[in-house]
Amino acid sequence: MDMSIYQNFHIKVARFSRVTYIRIVMPWILRNYTDHYLYLDSDMICVGSLKQFLTTDLEGKAIGALTYHTPDRVAFLKMKQDVYFSDGLMWIDVNEWIREKITERVFSYQGADPRRFKGQTQDLLNLVIDGNMKTIPNLFHHKNKDFSVQGILIHYSGRDKPWELVLDSDDELWRHYLDISFWESMPNPLPPKKPSYYHSFKKMAEVYGERGETWKRIQCLFWYSVLKIRYKL
Fold first, then answer.
1. Count of CB atoms within 10 A of residue 122's CB?
2. Which end of the chain has fewer beta carbons closer than 10 Å to its terminal beta carbon, N or C?
3. CA distance 91 to 215
4. Which pTM value belongs to this model?
């Protein structure tokens, strides 16, 4: 993908990438192959059947997505409708997306003051769609780490990623799928011993403390201290 066409879009958080903006042109890329497609962020895994999307009626809307009650974000963006959705999971009607010129309307925000937004593509898409979308039910497995919730998708949306450290059974499940994939396994559950990961060692110490694994907890606290000092210096 030629990334030069996205250079005038803002980056809200330093660790994020403009690669996120590729999702706004996907319907144009896929229009010759399909009428509908499911977009999922790359930090998700699926632990159940996705077939239910094939029977999801978008009722003439371009997008079906999960919504959140975020009145502060809606007010900040000055949206007309009190509907804010996540662009990390979107069931998309390609033809309707193109008919509504969603790609072109998002591109109209190039060069806008980054202070107008709290996010990247998600804010821009919500401004363009402004509630004209189909709400779909929550599909997340162990939503908000509630392990009684059974869904089909795990979204590793936080700062700590399972390819960096293993904090719970969801992270272990990601490592399991890695083990049976074509890619090389990552047997070490600890994060890299780099200064920028000092906070992760503190979390690992908490996990080992809860498990009663004292020696591993001490080791993590040692590396937390050393790496934090290096980071501050």
1. 20
2. C
3. 47
4. 0.86
